[in-house]
Amino acid sequence: MALVVQKYGGSSVADASCIKRVAQRIVATKKAGNDVTVIVSAMGDTTDELLDLAEQVSPLPPGRELDMLLTSGERISMALLAMAIANLGYEARSFTGSQAGVITNSTHGKARIIDVTPSRIREALDRGHIAIVAGFQGVSQDTKDITTLGRGGSDTTAVALAAALDADVCEIYTDVDGIFTADPRIVPTARKIPKVSYDEMMEMAACGAKILHLRCVEYARRFALPIHVRSSFSTREGTWVVSDPYTEGTEMEQPIISGVAHDRSEAKITVVGVPDKVGEAAAIFKTLAGAEINIDMIVQNVSAAATGRTDISFTLPTADSSTALTALKRMQGEIAFESLLFDDQIGKVSLIGAGMRSHPGVTATFFAALADAGVNIEMISTSEIRISVIVDQDDVDVAVAAAHRAFELDADQVEAVVYGGSGR
Ligand code: ASP
Ligand code: MG
């Protein structure tokens, strides 16, 4: 008997009929002789709707209360799913993140899991029940308050529980058939990737591929837990995320580029006229770190000889930009920069592939493709297996399609079916 952990995203449980369909799928897995633990997201766009509602009553809701509000979304779907399963004659028990033993730190809105103690889930499984767990949430070890893991955090709940329960596989159900070489909503000829490494998947997740949460992939890599990303709307084999997709008994050849990811959720801040002396950059980034802001790309210009001053630009999640601007303004006296510029009309386009390590010319091909498409590059950053550029937000779609074409990733016919989801 295997232990299967399944996670169903918001679009898979968007309404009552979706929930009934998912219940049938879960029961089928149970009937096949497996122990089943299910993690659910909030129905459809519930989380966004709750956020909108919060904004209507307060421009800056307290983190504790926002987490209390947002976690209610997952509680609705877990209870409804348990009812739907009971209606099929099977025993299901729903649990909040806290009841399931998901222990986090106390950073509201982006809490980190520090321990998972799933004794109640074990007990439920031992009794032959199907355990349903609310994703995206936990309880803080010190404050005992309810926390959330950040947008898309149910994936992380699923992998963390799967690891703690020593599950055989973690299946992540979504509204597309797996991970594609680009977002099929932008590139209809994107191809399904059969297997991808944790490292490549982490880069894709960090670069805006919304299909898996970055922390979930980090977690899976740490425990070498295989993830199977597939659609809840079909029975097709999806994408396997594993340690080494190119040696594990496949004849699959390593592609140079595995995929093209894009991200519209970042903004750019430029600190203008920073005195070009030791410790200035450290002071800026210490300020931002103190405000718990994750920086992505950084560019420092050469200082102008005449002024002895330089500009430092960096990108960050748009959602964090007002916190960052406020923190920097507070330090203006100490750092003695001249001014701050802010641009949220940017987008990031990234090329990801472990194969680029051993293939020269990838950057040249990428930049030539962007130039041919008339796209201007504002910032560049690279890792061993990734090249990212910042472009104007309006150019993102064109840039993704151009890169996808330049690396011959297009399928001959349309493979991708987007079954649901508003893409919100
Ligand atoms: N419902 C949460 C969100 O929309 C968590 C998740 O879907 O994973 O971000
Ligand atoms: Mg969601």
TrEMBL record:
The keyword Nucleotide-binding applies. It is an enzyme of class 2 (transferase). It comes from the Bacteria. Substrate binds at residues 47, 74. Keywords: Amino-acid biosynthesis, ATP-binding, Diaminopimelate biosynthesis, Kinase, Lysine biosynthesis, Nucleotide-binding, Transferase. One of its GO terms (biological process) is lysine biosynthetic process via diaminopimelate. Its EC number is 2.7.2.4. The keyword Amino-acid biosynthesis applies. One of its GO terms (cellular component) is cytosol. ATP binds at residues 7-10, 174-175, 185. It catalyses: L-aspartate + ATP = 4-phospho-L-aspartate + ADP. InterPro entries: AceGlu_kinase-like_sf, ACT-like_dom_sf, ACT_Aspartokinase, ACT_dom, AKii-LysC-BS, Asp/Glu/Uridylate_kinase, Asp_kin_monofn, Asp_kinase. Pathway: Amino-acid biosynthesis; L-lysine biosynthesis via DAP pathway; (S)-tetrahydrodipicolinate from L-aspartate: step 1/4; Amino-acid biosynthesis; L-threonine biosynthesis; L-threonine from L-aspartate: step 1/5; Amino-acid biosynthesis; L-methionine biosynthesis via de novo pathway; L-homoserine from L-aspartate: step 1/3. Residues 269-354 form the ACT domain. GO terms for molecular function: aspartate kinase activity; ATP binding. PANTHER family: ASPARTATE KINASE, ASPARTOKINASE. Catalyzes the phosphorylation of the beta-carboxyl group of aspartic acid with ATP to yield 4-phospho-L-aspartate, which is involved in the branched biosynthetic pathway leading to the biosynthesis of amino acids lysine, threonine, isoleucine and methionine. Belongs to the aspartokinase family. This is Aspartokinase. It comes from Nonomuraea cavernae.
